[in-house]
Write a structure and sequence with these properties.
Number of helices of chain A: 3
Strand content of chain A: 15-25%
Low-confidence stretches of chain B: 152-160
CATH topology of chain A: Ubiquitin-like (UB roll)
Number of helices of chain B: 4
Largest sheet of chain A: 5 strands, mixed
Radius of gyration of chain B: 16 Å
Number of domains of chain A: 1
Strand content of chain B: 35-45%
Mean pLDDT of chain A: 95
Structural class of chain B: alpha+beta
CATH class of chain B: Alpha Beta
CATH class of chain A: Alpha Beta
Distance between the termini of chain A: 48 Å
CATH superfamily of chain B: Molybdopterin biosynthesis MoaE subunit
CATH superfamily of chain A: Beta-grasp domain
Number of strands of chain B: 9
Oligomer: heterotetramer
Mean pLDDT of chain B: 92
CATH architecture of chain B: Alpha-Beta Complex
Order of helices and strands of chain A: EHEHHEEE
Order of helices and strands of chain B: EHEEEHEEEHEEH
Chain lengths: ~90, ~160, ~160, ~90
């Protein structure tokens, strides 16, 4: 039996600081198929993740380095990033 | 094709301009914007600004923004260079150049590029004040409004 | 106070930018426009563009335009350099720089300065085509409209 | 009896070419007191001046290096310039 590829989850700015990690490899259960379902699963991992995802309205997401919406799909092997609204320029 | 660079090092605006113009005689106007670190933020003295970014996505996002500018205006060329890392007051952060046959598209594309960079390129600024305290800069509604003025589409999305 | 220069010699945009920024930490954005000689005009190949101006009045007119920009926006500095004489395709004609604490006034002042320079600074362009024929460039209605968009007042007057 | 100071009249671009002069010093009669009255007096000097001032709607004027209107006054010693609409930038 082959194991599915993990998700690479990346965090930036204050999300990175709150989670305490810049990146982690995770295999969520099969029913996690969208950004919208991934977020509460991540938030439920521990207190640090819960704190990071508490202010959901100010969290943005990218799937495979493209800005994503809550409805966007999440598949094994994808790179999913969470971060605050961008402030470059 | 636009020239896009994401780097810690300073850039040389004169050299970038010369590079854009080299051998070209079809250009009538070049618009340019340079963003620099200001020494105050909300009345407090700033010691430095640290820019974090998302390597890989940053270059893709900037290239997409430049491609959108080239789709909207007939540009002879454009350049976007954005720095990351710790920068002190007076340091240049970002360079935008847009060249066209006429001044109107060159200037419009320059404004468009910096407005979209502010809201669509994955950079995050952390302010470091003179007393040593730090804080992440919150996105400005004014920047979202400026970026949105170029389009009907929203510049971001809410995950929750 | 703005830096204004009217000269036959080329200018160095990088050096002018460095001069504007030197020792300053209160600047957040610099807008810039550079006008260059295009190799075609109405489909004909251009050999050169000769700019005539009104020595004395030119400097006064540009200083007045720059002062108006400084009255309308809170600028940290601005620079206008305009060349005269015979210039060949690819050559830079005019440099405008406007620095401010934020990008919006820097970019708006840059557009304003070039729009008003086009309609209020006493320069006249003569085109010289590859076949040797020459003709004075007529003022463009689009330029008048662009300049007028900044104000209710007319950019010129009719003597007759 | 003291002679009044002359006007310095300057021409640019195609006005200069049509008049055939870049500059001239002239003493118009006392009744010439405005730009509007100066123009027909200059146009009446010779064929070259008449040709230069024929397209009056496209002629602009400056008095002492400031853009002027037809109603603006012209006084002895003034520098008056005539030129087409400007095309710099």
């Amino acid at each position: 039996m082959t194991e599915t590829a993990p998700l690479t989850i990346r965090y930036f700015a204050w999300l990175r600081e709150r989670v305490g990690l810049a990146e982690e490899q995770l295999r969520p259960p099969a029913e996690i198929t969208t950004v919208a379902t991934l977020i509460p699963w991540l938030a439920g991992r521990d207190a640090a993740h819960a704190h990071a995802f508490a202010a959901r309205a100010t969290i943005r997401c990218a799937v495979n380095q493209e800005f994503a919406t809550p409805q966007d799909r999440v598949s094994p092997g994808d790179e999913i990033a969470f971060f605050p609204p961008v402030t470059g320029g | 094709m636009a020239r896009v660079a994401v780097q810690a090092d300073p850039f040389d605006p004169g050299a970038e301009l010369a590079r854009l113009l080299a051998g070209r005689t079809d250009i009538g106007g070049i618009g340019c914007f340079i963003g620099t670190v200001r020494d105050t933020a909300e009345g407090r003295r700033l010691a430095a600004l640290t820019l974090e970014h998302y390597p890989g996505m940053t270059e893709r996002a900037i290239a997409a923004i430049a491609a959108e500018a080239e789709r909207r205006w007939d540009l002879a060329g454009c350049t976007v260079i954005h720095r990351f890392g710790r920068l002190t007051p007076g340091a240049p952060i970002v360079l935008v150049l847009a060249a066209a046959a006429h001044r109107a598209p060159a200037l419009a594309a320059t404004s468009f590029l910096i407005d979209w960079l502010k809201t669509r390129a994955p950079f995050w600024k952390q302010e470091e004040w003179e007393d040593g305290a730090t804080a992440w800069v919150a996105a400005k509604e004014a920047d979202d409004a400026a970026a949105a003025s170029w389009d009907q589409t929203s510049p971001g999305f809410t995950a929750g």
